Amino acid sequence: MNAPLGARILVIDDEPQIRKLLKVTLQAHQFELYECGDGEEGVIQASIVHPDLIILDLGLPGMSGMEVLLRIREWSQVPIIVLTAKDQEGDKIAALDGGADDYVTKPFGMGELVARIRVALRHVAKTTDEPILRFGSLTVDLAQRQVELEGTLVKLTPTEYEMLKVLASNAGKIITQRQLLQQVWGGHHHESDSHYLRVYVGHLRKKLKEDPTNPRYIQTEPGIGYRFLLPAE
Asked: Please, which domain of life does this record's source organism belong to (predicted)?
């Protein structure tokens, strides 16, 4: 599925070369582009333009990218893809915990970025109050708390179901280990409990007939968390 034609994208990055590259490439993909070079202007533009998606550099001078993210998240759930330096894994996790939808590491390939943009926009398009989530042959009925695969009921423990619900409800987005622990176990967890996640994800993959080396549903983001994959369209 292609992203909607004319989707508005706001780029907040202090490097003119990056903004120029993004402008040329994304306009060629039929996106409508807006840009600014600092965080304060970025927050203002986000409120004026009402973009469909924001690309945000974390390494901004003045108001930091993290502060921009948190400011925008006070009033908007617009998809935000952050740009980070290669060795800033802690920044990626902090940004995702702070409400970013995805990240791309500099230097990045434009093909990868465009693909991430399309996934983020598709996630928004699929966001609905519909109590039944469908992913190809997998169905998650949130009202009945039932999961079916290829027409057959999948028996899950309450914890396995809660984990699948969190991941599937946020399909296309990266959910960090901290977010999963918080949403599944509440306040009764520690960062060191991340081994529980590996165990339960292993159980889920087995019950969903997943090949861990080529997942259809649950993809591991090493050192960060997990992403529930949207089916190719």
From this structure: Bacteria
- The most distant pair of C-alpha atoms in the chain lies apart, rounded to whole Å, by 55
Residue percentage of the chain with pLDDT more than 70: 92
Beta strands at 32-36 and 8-12: parallel, antiparallel or unpaired: parallel
Residue owning tokens 């009925």: 141
Q: What is the pTM of this model?
A: 0.82
* Residue at 1 is within a domain: no
In the prediction, which pLDDT does 3 show?
Answer: 47
Cα atoms found within 13 Å of the Cα of residue 40, Cβ hemisphere only: 3
Q: In the 8-state DSSP scheme, what is residue 14? A: S
Is 233 domain-assigned?
Answer: no
Q: Is 63 a domain residue?
A: yes
Number of domains in the chain: 2
Instruction: Give 183-199 pLDDT, tens digit per residue.
Output: 888 866 665 677 888 99
